[in-house]
User: Fold this.
Amino acid sequence: MPSAGKTLFTSDIHLDSESSVITRSFLDFLANRARGADALYVLGDLFEAWVGDDDTSALNTQVAQAFAALADSGTMLYFMHGNRDFLLGRDYAARCQATLLEEPALIECHGQRMALIHGDSLCTRDIDYMKFRKMVRTERWQRDFLERSLVERQMIAQQARMQSKEQSKNKASEIMDVTPQEVLNLLQTLQVNCLIHGHTHRPSIHTLRLQEPINNCVDAQRIVLGSWDTQGWALELGAEGFDLKHFPHLTA
Assistant:
C-alpha cells in the first residue's frame, strides 16, 4: 500500500476476458496497492480492446466496480486513451468515477510539472501505424464504427488484434519505439522537464540532455511505464521522487 501523499501511474494493463491472471492481479492492485494513494493515472490501454461503452460484459462491469470502490475510498482517478482503448468514453469513465484526460495532459504533482501521454504518438518511424492512428482518431470514423452492431464491432476488433500481432512480428524493434527527436520536440513545446508515458512496453527512467534549457535546466526525464503482460508495473511519485515498481502477478 502506498504511503500518504503518493500518486500512482500505470498503463498497458491490456485487460481481456481471456487473461484471468492479469485481471486478478490488477483487481488486487486496485484493492490493495493503490488504496490510500492521492491519485491514480491510467495512461492508456487499460483494456486490450474497447468497442464502445455499451459493451457491458462481466469483465467491464467488474473493473468499473473496482475503480469506483477505489474512488469511494478517496483516490482520484484519471484515464487516458491508448491505442487499444481510444473508444473508451465518458459513460464508462463515469461508471468508474474517473476523469478522462486529453493528451498531452499537463499536471503538477509534489512540486513537479510534468506531461502525460500514452506514447504511441511519438512512434513516428512506424509510418503504417501513424496513418492508421490518424484515420481511427477522426470523429467520422469513430461515429461510423460505433453505429455498427456490438457483435460486428467485436468481430472487427478481434480481426484487428490478430492483424496487429502479425504485423508487429515483421517490424524492426526501433520502429516500434519512440522517435528520440519527437520526445525532445514535445518537451520543448510543452516546456516541461518530465514526460511520463507507456505504450512501448520498455519500462525505464531515462535522463535526457535538452537542446535548449527548459525552466533553467538542461536535463529532462522520460519515464516509461511497463506492460502488465508478465508482471504488474506502477510508477510511484512522492515528495522523495519517482519509484518505478514491479510486482509478480497473483497465480491463485
